[in-house]
Amino acid sequence: MKAVRFHGQKDIRVEEVTGPQAPLAADDVLIKPLVCGICGTDLHEYVSGAIVTPTTPHVYTGATNPQILGHEFSALVLDVGRDIKHVHAGDRISVQPLISPRNDYFGRRGLFHLSPCMACVGLSWAWGGLGQQAVVKGYNAVSVSKKVSDVQAALIEPAAVAVYALDRGRVTIGSTVLISGMGPIGALALLGAKAAGASKIFVSEINPNRLAKARELVPDCITVNPRTTNLLEFIQDQTEEGVGVDTAIECGGAEASLNACVDVVRRQGVVVQAGLHSKPATVDAMKWALKDITIEATWCYPTQSWPRVASMIESGIFPVEKVVTAQISMDDVVAKGFEALLDPTGNQMKVLVNVN
Asked: What is the DSSP string of 155-216?
């Protein structure tokens, strides 16, 4: 079968590999990936890896590079192990990609995303969404209704990241919110904040194409380029008594962005760190104390998020498909996918790969 595999830094290849072999384990599901997104984690691997993908056998799964990529994807069920009852051959699913023990400290508490042994389909598992077939565990396969498209089902994973950030930020009806960084997670957080009933949403981004995309997604959002406009003064001018926003969500993984969020959030407000930092950030912890703010850091999402996010999409209040800027073939994954997304002046935000 054809698969997109990560071999090392700047080394991603579209190759023919041996597909899954029978028989299936009792708790396994054999699937045919349909649509798969390229994630920021994938981009980090491409530019600087190996970071997350294992160069030695993974402690829980035994997986090692070269790794079939892809952890944001929809799929068709081809076959199931004898213990699988919740999905059947022919079902369409969205893959919840986290793989971890069910019986360790965190697993017993349902905090599967926090296990120190956690692996991920498409990063530290034998299979990924950028292969024409894959095997996942039963708990990874979440069926979706006919009202949820293949594209929407592929976007549940990044949407779950954004929804978790909004939850941790206490965003609710009437909230004032800053989204700092308009990559895919920022764009989905923007849509999610609107769905949650936020009354005023600011978007800070240095790429003018992405600022334009933000206005396309939510026409009444307030956009600002912090390189040309003083962000603090801009937000003070548009919040009650100049106090700042209730919640600031950092989606870019940049030190300057994090500190800007601290500056513009009101006293006793909430800053959510959703973007992943590739190096330590220098922060002013005294300012955190003086403002009496809450700093929330997020990692992935509760794996139980899938039905909730799917229902939001199905209802129409969370139009995640609007963040997609291109759909490409597997053969074009490097040039039109990874390289296009890494262009700092480019107009791509979310690129999906049509696998089958």
From this structure: THHHHHHHHHHHHHTT--TT-EEEEE--SHHHHHHHHHHHHHT-SEEEEE-S-HHHHHHHHH
State how far the Cα of 224 lies from the Cα of 235, in Å rounded to an integer: 9
What Å distances lie between residue 52 and 35, 47, 102, 144, 155, CA to CA? 22, 12, 21, 29, 21
Q: Which domains does the chain have, with CATH numbers?
A: 2-143+319-354 (3.90.180.10), 158-297 (3.40.50.720)
End-to-end CA distance of the chain: 11
Is there a contact between 17 and 1 (Cβ–Cβ < 8 Å)?
Answer: yes
Structure tokens at 261: 């969020």
> Is the whole-model pTM more than 0.90?
yes
Burial of 96 per CB tally in 10 Å (0-12, 13-18, 19+): buried
Each residue of 53-68: pLDDT tens digit? 999 999 999 999 999 9
Tell me whether strands 222-224 and 245-250 are parallel, antiparallel or unpaired: unpaired
pLDDT 10s digits, 174-218: 999 999 999 999 999 999 999 999 999 999 999 999 999 999 999
* Cross-strand pairs, 73: 36
